[in-house]
Amino acid sequence: MKKSIQFLGMLLIATVVMVSCKKDTDPADKDLFVGTYKGTVSYKKDGTTINSSDGKITVSKIDDKYSFYFGNNIPDLTGIKFEKKDDNSYVSVGSGFTGITINASTLKMLVVKDGATWTADCTR
């Protein structure tokens, strides 16, 4: 009986140590940014301007790249990589895609690429 209690005690200690030493999961690894953000969006190119105060952007992720799908006839932005800014937000990196900041609850965007400009100030 004494050996059984000793074994259970050691097993309990080992379990506590394993759980407390588990590596923290990065929010970006859990795809917290994937989903739909709503707010003000705009697009400008060659004299065409689209503005919407009730715009919608759907964010998806494949591998390490994000895509932003707009409503309101605004062209989508795809293949965008991000790097960590602070504990819970990320900023876009790469040619032509700088200017996007995202976290679990907000999306802010000012992207200028190929003569076009996308802006967004959205939440979810």
Automatic annotation (TrEMBL):
Stretch forming the signal peptide: 1-19
Q: Which PROSITE patterns match?
A: PROKAR_LIPOPROTEIN (PS51257)
Keyword terms of this UniProt record: Signal
Q: What is this protein called?
A: Lipocalin-like domain-containing protein
